[in-house]
Amino acid sequence: MTSNDKRTLRVIVDAGVGSGGSLMREAKAWLAPRRVEYCLLDEIHKGIPDVEILDKVLGKDTVLVTKDRVLHNRALRKGFQSLTLDKNGGLTRRALPGIRLPKQEALSTEKELRADYVREPSGLALKLKDGFSEKQFQKYRRRRRRIRSYFGSADNIAKASVTIASRRGQRGDLHGYILHLAGKSGVKGLKASEGYCRVADGHVDPSFCLLHALADLYLLDLDGTDVELFVIPPDSLSLVRRLLNGSGKERQVGSGHALGFLLDGLSEVSVYPCTKGRFYEMAEKKLNQLMRSRTNEIVTIDFGDMVRRISGPLPVNADAVESGG
User: Fold this and answer.
1) β partners of residue 196
2) Which pLDDT tens digit goes with each residue over 40-85?
3) Residue (of 80, 75, 67) closest to 105 by Cα position
4) Which residues pair with 91 in a beta bridge?
5) Can you give the pTM of this predicted structure?
6) Which residue of 14, 44, 289, 290 is most buried, as measured by CB atoms within 10 A?
7) What's the per-residue H, E or C state across 125-144?
């Protein structure tokens, strides 16, 4: 494209780019000789999934400006123009190296664009996010965007399967989960997330490994998806079954009370014992590895604080808590 080109170029500015950052400054300098029209996705199609950007927004006379390295490479693979920053901070229109793209592109399930794609978080998600640092928000934003990018939209996720494990050790219990998502419309399943934690005060409670896993389902905005729980620890399996059957006195107070809230807030939940299989072996191997090493994969969680937040009222600043993202 030359500076003499008289066409108006639509510049599609992805969410999170901002107006004063280095990417936008570099992009405007490159675009300066051209006649352009800026389209800010955060304003005209808030929360739009990547699949809709690729299917309905980008075209022959558009340029995408994005910080999303995967989206940048996907746009180029489909023959669109895209601008982002390379590892040295310079503007590039070329594909970035070392970025793994899905072998098959998720398909759009909608006929027309919408002004707002944001799914308002549940009250339980707002409670869990209350007091989060920006680093914690960013962590879950990245995970949510990766999941949405892979499946195209939340509607393409058929089911969430969570393997929940726990291991007793000298430094206290180590809890972990592995989350696998099954897709619709020909989209293959995805190992979407995993997490490992120790208890801040060393307290032993069969509900903690369940609270850890279910809290992340809410933080990843997956509480509206059908959920299967595959529980390895026998005491935790027994507890969650009692709570779901309504026969557990644990629902009345403390951690069981909070766990009951999380279970009740799920769209659909079923529970199974986990004694063998690929995810059982994967979880057991990972816990064995983590028990022998020092790693930043393990976070420390104050479950007492989590229980108080889940069981308590909505935060007074709920409107300011980060939404779907």
Assistant:
1) 176, 298
2) 999 999 989 898 999 999 999 999 999 999 999 999 999 999 999 9
3) 75
4) 85
5) 0.82
6) 14
7) HHHHHCCCCHHHHHHHHHHH
**Domain residue ranges in the chain:** 8-92, 123-320
Instruction: Give the separation between CA 126 and CA 145, rounded to whole angstroms.
Output: 18
Residue 117 in tokens: 């794609």
What is residue 67's DSSP assignment? S
Burial (Cβ within 10 Å: 0-12, 13-18, ≥19) of residue 32 = exposed
Residues lower than pLDDT 70 in the chain:
1-5, 185-186, 247-248, 317-325
DSSP string computed for 14-55: -TT--SSSHHHHHHHHHHTTSEEEEEEHHHHSBT--HHHIII
As a whole number of angstroms, the distance between CA 142 and CA 206 comes to 30
Paired tokens of 251:
């629902």
- Output the pLDDT for position 325: 47
Tokens representing 131 are 């007091």
Q: How far apart are CA 125 and CA 223, in angstroms?
A: 9
The three-state secondary structure class of 301 is: strand
Q: Which of these, 296, 281, 239, 278, lies nearest to 262 by C-alpha position? A: 239
CATH topology of domain 8-92: Rossmann fold (3.40.50)
CATH number, domain 123-320: 3.30.420.10
Write the DSSP symbol of residue 267: S
- The token pair at 144 is 């949510």
